[in-house]
Amino acid sequence: MEKIDLKKYRVDGGNAAPIEDLSTLSPEDKERLLYAGIDVDRTDRAGSFMHMNHSGVHCKSQQEGLEIMDIKDALAKYDGLPEYWWKLVDKDKDEFTRAAFETLHGGYFIRAKAGHKIAEPVQSCLFIKDSGLAQSVHNIVVVEEGAEMHIITGCATAHGAKETAHMGISEFYVKKGGKLTFTMIHNWSDDTAVRPRSAGILEEDAVFLNNYVLLKPVKDLQMYPALTLNGSGAIARFNSVIVAPEGSHVDSGNRIILNAPNTRAEIIARTLTTGGTIINRGFIGANNVPARGHLECKGLILGGGRIHAIPELDATIDGVELSHEAAVGKIAQEEIEYLMARGMDEDEATATIVRGFLNVEMEGLPPELQAAIDKQISELDAGDVM
Amino acid sequence: MLQIKNLHVNIGDVEVLKGIDLTIPEGETFILFGPNGSGKTTLLMTLMGFGNYTVTEGQILFKGVDITYAPMYERARLGIGMSFQRPPTIHGLKTGHLVKMCGQGRTVDVEGLAKKVNFSRFLDRDINAGFSGGEIKRSELLQLMAQRPDLILFDEPESGVDLENMSLIGRTARELLDGLQPASCTMKMAKTVCKTAGLIITHTGHILEYVNADRGQVMYNGRLCCEARPRDILDHISKHGYKECLRCLSSENGEQLDLADFREAY
Ligand SMILES: Nc1ncnc2c1ncn2[C@@H]1O[C@H](COP(=O)(O)OP(=O)(O)O)[C@@H](O)[C@H]1O
Ligand SMILES: [Mg+2]
User: Ligand 1 in contact with B202 (CB < 6 A)?
Assistant: First the structure.
């Protein structure tokens, strides 16, 4: 893989004007966002946020107990957010974290206040509209004691935006008894370099459910979000569905560290390449008991491409229960014949099996989003992907 | 409906079917007997068009169309349906969804059909995932009901099935072959459905208590012999084993077959 040269991208000149009403976005942009799981026309959202190019353009909370702010405003209001700002990600980790540290374009601060269970999802879009831009954002999510929240974040580039880069720092704090569902859907382009750097920390009895969906081309994506479970009874789960057509290079994985008793971790990934490269990492570490974790990476190669599964378990104490299951394969002829005997031709049979393979049941998704994802999976048709 | 002429089939380099001639007219159910390893399953798989079975000689005609080398889905679309003995699990494919797809574009009352085979609570499960013997059979029949084939291939409907399931499976198979009972459909409907033909393999003959089978034959060592009424064949086999068929085959072919083969066969 060719190295990403950050100097190639512009980090200024991408200011965008505020957008009061997201439904005024152009139909083309709306469509791009729709494929990133975001329907800006929906009114049943607890709040919404949008960052475009180098500016936060929209920020709205419609619910008590839910705070949504542009990160710059939050830093100003809360004296630089000393409890949360750069606490979980090391700014010197690599050139991308440093770039994000040096240039801050924006990002969100979203907080569910103690005891508030936010019923409707919070919607966030990170959008790159113009060619040649590097966008760096820094997000902070806080779920206070006993609070619950679901954030759906859609990341997309506009149709025709060439040579773009996205760097995103995200820090998640789920406090005692809090529950965060975080669903991220990517709809970048075959000319976008993507470097999210995310980490989260869970206190006692906290729950973090993370869903990640990448069904569209991306030039070069690398991310390895890490969750540390420091409180007894905490639970973390990652579900990912990743498709890499020719030209996509995806290096993606999840890391969970179990530091407290009665913690649980589950990482499930389904990956499919039709010519691209997928490096699918997974790591569960356990330093306390009782602790249970299961890691599952299943990959399917259709036609060409590469899947490199790297599941890792690291236990430092007697009594942990960690397991992993990794498989890279092809579609079984027996399954194709079964469906052909019901009248499907080979392409239809293949598509049906692939759809089943990618059909990971994600938790906490609103039905219309699940339906949108299912639809996209079913649109991965013979010509496109198989 | 189905016409098989001098069919020779290899699995790998081994000739398993050695010249099969068989005609099944519209509306008729044909029963195939024979010891283990004689080639019964091979015949069904070849008719359906599975990849591992190579036709080296002969011809298969279905509704007048030469399907000897046709791909599986063409045979299915022409109206051949098969109940699989050991179908594969397909993860993420819901049973209900597959049943719907079996309709090939025709609207299928999935719920209604599922009720008939007591399968409603399986519709949301991945197809064949952890299904018991009886559940597999019910799932296969449900798919066939949605598919509405004109020729049904059914390999050992009794295998792995308890008595209660057997009665349900038997009645459903009959309905597929003979159409609905007159009370619930017009004579015209019954007539059209009656065109359905069947080819059923059985060891135990239990299925004969449910379906109206007209003719039967015994397969031995890749050849068919002893055509008779299925009941009579069954009675004969249970009394004498397969050795009579062997005699008859030997005299037909002038070939000396080893009687010892039969002792373990039945
Ligand atoms: N996949 C296979 N590979 C090699 N030989 C096979 C295979 N399937 C069946 N056979 C052989 O073909 C012959 C007929 O088998 P089969 O059609 O399954 O018989 P039946 O259904 O009458 O018991 C047997 O000798 C069996 O060992
Ligand atoms: Mg058999």
Answer: no
User: Largest alpha-carbon pair distance within chain B?
Assistant: 56
Of A170, A165, A304, which is closest to residue A244 (Cα–Cα)? A304
What are the phi and psi torsion angles at A222 (to 5°)?
-140, 125
Which of A342, A361, A370 to mutate to probe the B interface, most B CBs <10 Å? A342
Q: Which pTM does this prediction carry?
A: 0.85
Residue B76: closest C-alpha in chain A: A343
Q: Which residues contact B140 (CB under 8 A, 6 or more apart)?
A: B83, B84, B87
B88–A338 C-beta distance less than 8 A: yes
Question: What ligand is nearest to the CA atom of residue B219?
Answer: 1
Report the atom number in ligand 1 closest to the C-alpha of B52.
Answer: 1
Per-chain mean pLDDT for chain A: 94
Q: What is the DSSP string of A174-229?
A: E-TT-EEEEEEEEE--TTEEEEEEEEEEE-TT-EEEEEEEE-S--SEEEE--EEEE
**Which position has the token pair 């979980």?**
A88
Q: Which tops the pLDDT comparison, A385 or A65?
A: A65
Contact A377, A355 (CB under 8 A): yes
Contact yes or no for A342 and B102 at CB 8 A = yes
Both tokens of A352, joined, read 């049906």
Tokens found for residue A255: 């890391």
Measured between beta carbons, the chain A residues lying within 8 angstroms of B93 are: 352-353, 355-356, 359
The residue of A239, A334, A335, A338 whose CB has the most chain B CBs within 10 angstroms, and thus the best one to mutate to test that interface, is: A338
- Residues whose CB falls within 8 Å of the CB of residue A253, separated by 6 or more in sequence, listed in order: A223, A224, A269, A279, A280, A281, A282, A283, A310
Neighbours of A159 (CB within 10 A): 12
For the domain made up of B2-265, the CATH class stated in words is alpha beta
Residues A126, A170 contacting (CB under 8 angstroms): no
Exposed e or buried b for every residue in B70-103, given b needs 16+ CB within 10 A? bebbbbbbbbbbbbbbebbbbebbbbbbbbbbbb
Q: Report the distance separating Cα A84 and Cα A62, nearest Å.
A: 24
**Confidence at residue A385, expressed as pLDDT on a 0 to 100 scale:** 46
Beta carbons of A340 and B71 less than 8 angstroms apart? yes
Handedness of CA B17, B21, B27, B31 (dihedral sign): negative
Token pair recorded at residue A129:
């509209």
A314 lies within 8 A of chain B by CB: no
Ligand 1: does its nearest atom lie under 6 Å from the Cβ of B54? no
Indicate whether residue B40 lines ligand 1 (CB < 6 A): yes
Domain boundaries, chain B: 2-265
Read off the tokens for A300: 């399917």
| Nearest C-alpha neighbor of B207 from the set B159, B244, B146 | B159
**DSSP β-bridge partners for residue A193:** A165, A220
Q: Kindly identify which residue of chain B lies nearest to residue A350, measuring between CA atoms.
A: B90
pLDDT tens string B78-133:
999 999 999 999 999 999 999 999 999 899 999 999 999 999 999 999 999 999 99
Instruction: Confirm or reject contact between A342 and chain B (CB < 8 A).
Output: yes
